[in-house]
Amino acid sequence: MQRDTIVFDLIRKELERQRHGIELIASENFTSLQVMQAMGNVMTNKYAEGYPGRRYYGGCEIVDQTEQLAIDRLKQIFNIEYANVQPHSGAQANAAVALACLQPGDDILGLDLSMGGHLTHGSAANYSGKLYKAHFYGVKKEDGRVDYEMLEAKAREIKPKMIICGASAYSRDWDYARIRKVADEIGALVMADIAHPAGLIAKGLLNDPFDHCHIVTSTTHKTLRGPRGGIIMMRKDFENPFGLTDNKGNIRLMSNLIDLAVFPGIQGGPLEHVIAAKAIAFGEILSDEYTQYAKQVQTNAQAMAKAFMEKDYQIISGGTDNHLMLIDLRNKNISGKKAEQVLVQADITANKNMVPYDDRSAFVTSGIRFGVAAITTRGMHAEHMQFIVNAIDNVLMNADDAALINKVKSQVNEFMGQFVLYPEMG
Ligand SMILES: Cc1ncc(COP(=O)(O)O)c(C=O)c1O
Predict the structure, then answer these.
(1) 219 in active site
(2) What is the DSSP letter of 201?
(3) What is the per-residue pLDDT for 209?
(4) Which of 29, 93, 162, 250 has the greatest CB tally within 10 Å of its CB?
(5) What pLDDT does 244 receive?
(6) Distance 54 CA to ligand 1 centre (A)
(7) What is the mean pLDDT of residues 59-85?
(8) In which domain, by residue range, is 45 found?
(9) Is the CB of 193 under 6 A from ligand 1?
(10) Percent of the chain with pLDDT strictly greater than 90
């Protein structure tokens, strides 16, 4: 077969883009070389419907071992009893939990998308808002923090079958114990989606959701720094108290129901090559080096937030506990959309984001979200945050000055030259 130079040239260009720019998209990171290498391996050729030791295909003895290793390492990271490593993505993980726990028309309660929540937590545009009756809590206008009183009031009024916590654009820690308390009062399940802060939770730098939330989902490619994918976890398995059944009407352990919901519920054959890469990433997370990384992420985020606030940028909630921050740009007279566009011209990548109580649409927005997981992997420390904040401020305050933006771009490219990305790739 002739080598497809068109696609490989594009891949090379993407490598150069990643090398030269400052990556501040909060949901992105740079995997290690070995994680990437594992994703391009012969296990992509293998069909393995089912789970280790109970597959629907022959020849699964080897992929059984990589999948079991991924499961065992993930259990060790979070000190948990149950893990499913097959979801192809975070959205798939959430869909599987919903399929296992809910019936169409059931009430669910999640953080509003416009307040930092995720599409899969009940958005009208998503299956979760189409199949289930979605209700939302928000963040308080005064301090940008989750409005737990509102959450409790809505929970008592609606009595949802499931309360979902976790977010895509929320910089503060969660009070999981408080959510569980009201859930127990009304007989609801609690699902925590820790897609964003999972890496910091893994190292005890944020509250532990596992003791309080029945089920925890995550992506593997954000702070966890693994391949693109999803996972579902429980600290303790349980015979579900809500009479949830499999398709034969049998009440089963929650772990059985979740396994069945992933396959055959919403997915077919697992991506065993990606699961091999997950196993490698989980091994890396167990190392001291990753512990240092997670601490540095938190330090860098706080240093960046401080530098922004010194320049009078309005960070929602006034700071950050995790790896990200959401900035309300209204006092800077620039929309999120325009900010995203001009920053890209200076090789700084971030994404526009609605801020709580935004008066602009999701396509324009008044905010921008920054995260430091990727730049910390590049090797940056707290002292580098000032350069980045200065560069961003320079671009945003001179958004129509093409010459100046071009100058910032050169400075950014030179700055990034210090932080070599994938040197092995030449
Ligand atoms: C909180 C949360 N959950 C789920 C997802 C979905 O993950 P994926 O894009 O892998 O489907 C995201 C992605 O950004 C997220 O932020």
Answers:
(1) yes
(2) H
(3) 98
(4) 93
(5) 75
(6) 29
(7) 98
(8) 34-285
(9) yes
(10) 96
> What's the rounded Cα separation, in Å, for the pair 357 and 345?
29
271 burial type by CB count under 10 A (0-12 exposed, 13-18 middle, 19+ buried): buried
Q: What is the average pLDDT across 315-332?
A: 98
Judgement on whether residues 24 and 43 belong to the same structural domain of the protein: no
Strands 367-371 and 215-219: unpaired
Q: For the segment 135-164, what is each residue's pLDDT rounded down to a tens digit?
A: 999 999 999 999 999 999 999 999 999 999
What Rg value do the Cα atoms of the chain yield, rounded?
22
Kindly name the residue from 55, 172, 222, 409 that is annotated as catalytic.
Answer: 222
Alpha helices in 322-384 (DSSP H): 336-345, 373-377
CA 254 – CA 246 distance, rounded (Å): 10
The response to whether 212 counts as a known ligand-binding position is no
| Signed CA dihedral, 209, 211, 217, 219: sign only | positive
CA 191 → CA 74, 291, 297, 337, distances in Å?
18, 26, 25, 32
Question: Is the CB–ligand 1 distance for residue 168 below 6 Å?
Answer: yes
- Distance between start and end Cα atoms, the chain: 25
Determine contact, residues 217/258, Cβ cutoff 8 Å: no
99 in a structural domain: yes
* Residues whose CB is less than 8 angstroms from the CB of residue 305 and which lie 6 or more positions away in sequence, other chains included: 171, 315, 319, 320, 325
3-state SS assignment for residue 240: coil
Range of lowest pLDDT (216-225, 233-242, 362-371)? 233-242
CA-closest residue to ligand 1 atom 9: 90
Q: For the residues 56-74, what does the mean pLDDT come to?
A: 98
Q: Which residue has the tokens 């089920």?
A: 215
The rounded Å distance from CA 194 to ligand 1 centre is 9
Ligand 1 in reach of 240 Cβ (< 6 A): no
Which of 258, 285, 312 is where one domain is finished?
Answer: 285
pLDDT at res. 241: 67
The closest of 190, 97, 95 to 152, measured between CA atoms, is 190
Kindly report the backbone phi and psi dihedral angles of residue 157, in degrees, each rounded to the nearest multiple of 5, phi listed first. Answer: -75, -45
The two three-digit tokens of residue 252, written as one number: 């089963």
Contacts (Cβ under 8 Å, ≥6 apart) of 42: 273
> Does one domain contain both 300 and 411?
yes
Rounded distance between C-alpha atoms, residue 51 and residue 63, angstroms: 10
Q: What's the pLDDT tens digit per position in 18-56?
A: 999 999 999 999 999 999 999 999 999 999 999 999 999
Do 196 and 315 reside in the same domain of the chain?
A: no
229 and 320, same domain (yes or no): no
Same domain, 108 and 246: yes
